[in-house]
Every structure is written in C-alpha cells, then in structure tokens.
Amino acid sequence: MTFSIKLQVNEHKNGTLERKSEFEFEFAHTLISTRNQMDIPPSNDPKTPLLPLDDPNQRSQIKFPSSLKSILTSNNFNILLGPLLSTIICLHVNLDGSLTTSRNMLAVLAWIFAWWLTEAVPMQVVPMTIAAMSPLLLYPLFGIASADDVAHSYMNDVIALVLGSFILALAVEHYNIHKRLALNITLVFCGDPLNPPLLLLGICGTAAFVSMWMHNVATAVMMMPVATGILRRFPTGPNQSVVVGKFCRAVVLGVLYSITIGGMSTLTGTGVNLILVGMWQSYFPEAAPVTFSTWFLFAFPSALLMFLALWALLCCLYCSRSSGQALSVYFDKAHLKEELEMLGPMAYAEKMVLALFSMLIVLWMTRSITEDIPGWGVLFKGLAGDGTVSVMIATLLFIIPSKKQKGEKLMDWDKCKKLPWNIILLLGAGLAIADGVRSSGLADILSESLDFLEAVPYLAMTPAVCLISSTITELITSNNATATLIVPLLIQIAKTMHVHPLLLMIPGGIGAQFAFLLPTATPSNTVGFATGHIEIQDMIKIGLPLKIAGIAVLSLLMPTLGVYVFRTGEQVQ
C-alpha cells in the first residue's frame, strides 16, 4: 500500500497537495467510523486521540475470568477421568498374578468407557467418535497389540458391509425412493372408507421394511419427516380433538419403534448386530460364520412377532377402528395421490438405484443358503463375504450413468459427504475391544470369576441377559457400547455354563436394542420425541409392555428356532 501511494505522488507532481489531502481525509474518515462503532463520543478538540488510550483506573475495574476456574471445569475433569482410572488400575490392581497385558487391557477399558459415558470431548466434536479411535492409540502404548493389528479391526468384512450399505442408503435418500415407497404402501393400506388401524399398519410396516436394509438412525431421519408430513393434515393446538391427538401419537410411536424392530431383523439394520457377528468371527474363527441369511432366518420371525405386538398395543391404546369417521374429514387417498404425483414418474436413475438395491438383497440372501445348497459363495471358494457384495454394489453406483446430465453418475463423492463415519468408527472400536479382551487374557480371567453361574438354568439366563443389556442401554450408554461391553462377558459366561455362546450372545445383543422407555436411550428415540407429538408417558405406556414382549419372544425362540438355525447343538472351539 505504501508503494502505490508513492507512485501516485511521483506521477502527479502538480497535484501532490490535492492527493495528499484526499488521502488524509479517507484515513480520518475510517478512524471516525471506528470510533462510532466503539461508542466513543466525538470530540472537537484536535488534540483528542482518535483511538482510546489505556486508563490505569479503568484497568483495575476490568474483570478477567479466573484461569483456575477455566481449568477446573467438569468437562476437563471428565477428560482426565479416563487416564486417572487407567493409572490407578495399572498401579494398584493385581489380577492374581496374571499377565500384565490383562491388567493393562482392564485399564484401557476403564479409560475408553469413562470417555464414552461422560462424553468427555468438546461439543464441537462427536464424543463417541473420538473415544472410538482411542484403541488405535492406547493398545500400542499399553503393549496389548501392535498398531497394524488393532487397525485391522477398523476395516474388515463387517466394516465393508456397513460402508457399502451406507453409500447405497445415501443414494436411496438422494433420489427420494424411500418417500415414494412410503406413499405407495400407505395408499394400499389406507382403505376406503378410512381404516385407521390398517393405515397405521401400512405406515409402521414401511418404516420397519426400510429399517431392515438401512441403519436405524438414517431410517429415522428419513422416515420421521414422512410420518409427520402425513400428520400435518390434522389441526394442532386447542383445536385438535382427542381422537386426532391419539392417532398422531400412535403414528410417531409406531414409526419410532418399528424402526428399532425392523433393524433387528437384518445384519445391516443396526450396528449391534454387526458388532455381535464381528465378535463371533473374532472369538471363534473356525466356527461356521453367522451370515446375512442365517441371521435373517432367526431374527425376522422374532421381529415380526414384536411388530405385531406393537401394532396391537397401539390399536388398543391409541387407534381404534371407530376413529375412522373422525379422521376421514382431514385425511383420504386423494391427498396421498397428490403427493405421489408431485414426485412425478420414476426416472432412469431411480429405477437403477432400486434395481441395485434389490440385487444387493438377493446376493446377500443367496451367498450361503444351506449345507446342501451352498449358494454362489462356493464359486469363490468362500473368499467372498457380505462386505464384498456391499462394496461391489456401491462401486456400481459410481460407474452407472444417471442420464440426468452428460457424464453424471448415479453417485459421486460429493453426495457421500454425509457418510456417518462416527458409526463406522464406533463399530471398529467394538471389534477392537473384543479382540483386545480375548488376546490379552482378560476374557479368561473373567470366566474364572463366573463359576457360580454354572448352577443357573439357561431358561432363567435368557430373560435376565435381555433385561440387563436393555437397562444398560436405557440408562447409561448407547446400544453399540452396551453390546461392546456385555457380549465378551456373555461369551465367557457361556463357556462357564458349558452352553453354546450364541445362546447368550444373541439375547444379549438383541436385548441391548430393547431401549423403548426414554427419549435419550437411542438416536431414533430422540428423533421421534423431537417431533413434539409424544411425551415420556406415551413412551413408557407402549415401551414397557413392548420390552416385556420382546424378552418373552427371545426367551421362547432362542431355545427352539435358534437351536435349529445357528446349530447350537454342535461344539464350538
């Protein structure tokens, strides 16, 4: 800036004074504007400084925040709590002369779960995500595993399955396929005249079906606006009748719990299922894997019974058949058809995404069918997994053109910026913790302290495990963290009781998803509660009997259907 001013002066010798006075005016005007913004009163005295000077008297009146108070905050205490607990365990805990790696693994668990439970990371960052990456740091430092070994837990076939599924879910969301599906199914179930229980069945069934193939959180974010969009036809506030208010609560509660129930029925529906299967592969690599189709054969009937129980509860308490006349004033098939027409006919891109979605389901279900019918996986000598299929379909999304613009594909990386990396890292952390507990010898020590459970009958263990895991999720932590904590313990309990591990692992993993009572228990609960249509009393009224029904279903099916599907009569090494 100084150089350009000198050039102007040199080039205009005859107008130097004019240019100089102009510059001084601009400079003074800028400072006066600054004074006005700082609320400094103007002065006519030419000796008055343009900017305020430091006043020693005012300096003593300025209150600076105490540096001690800024350090001694609850958040900083939560951050220090993890290392503090870890240090105490390393210095004072002796696990009966066991290897130091077992004690160190216990210290690492205390550190990680302290950060998980207290969310000891600034709110600008997803707390669970940072804690989920801590095994990558702590395992090498505490001598539990090498950096390469722990990193393998964050990218294996299970993680590849999740990654490809999330990319496909983003494509479904981008092209509004979920909304089109919801409107079409709701039209079928609407009835003429309006049948509220049947309509509720269609809305909840759509949410459960979408949740089977997409993660619960993504389904809740997509389906809840669809449900509330249907409810916008009804009046709100004092003008809302009791019948309309009950139906609104029934729809939100139905969608909320249907998403959770639908997610139980497939491996990709929720992270807990993937954590459970990943731990099974880690602890028992020589055993028959739990494939997508194997899980579906057991979990789908369980989820179907729970879904019917949910629908019956909602119809009895909130949505009777007699309410159809009052609701038909605001709601009929014409409104649904209008919304469907606004979406227009299905474009080529939507059809291709739907075709790839269907192909993925078929390939998942047919990779390994039965012992007599091995499925297409035998063509690759068992080297291809469910994650292989998921990544292949995701890759095709980046290759197949969308035919909307020249050179545009169905998906590009800009559309993938919403990938939930926090969930992927959390799954990796769960698998890393399972590997660390096993390889460090901590699992063996825990099993030795559980000898008293040999006398407990299995029929009493199943409901107890479901109740404990669901309560932990309800009150303390997320269902993913609950599964990460409780499933390794259940494996050791099963060894102590001399029963097949899956007989306890599956009730514990699925039971961790029975968090139906509180809005903060799961992200899906939070999304539903945030609509403003339901209260905590409504969640307890439906959630408590639904939890009991879920525990009863698992207690009934696990010793019967589960024995057949998972072949729990065979010995596991």
Automatic annotation (TrEMBL):
Coiled-coil intervals: none
Spans traversing the lipid bilayer: 77-95, 124-146, 158-178, 198-231, 251-275, 295-319, 352-370, 376-399, 419-437, 457-490, 502-522, 542-566
Key words, A-Z: Membrane, Transmembrane, Transmembrane helix
Membrane topology, from the record: Multi-pass membrane protein
Main location: membrane
Subcellular location: Membrane
Pfam name, any one: Na_sulph_symp
Protein's name according to its UniProt entry: Tonoplast dicarboxylate transporter-like isoform X2
Top-level taxonomy: Eukaryota, Viridiplantae, Streptophyta, Embryophyta, Tracheophyta
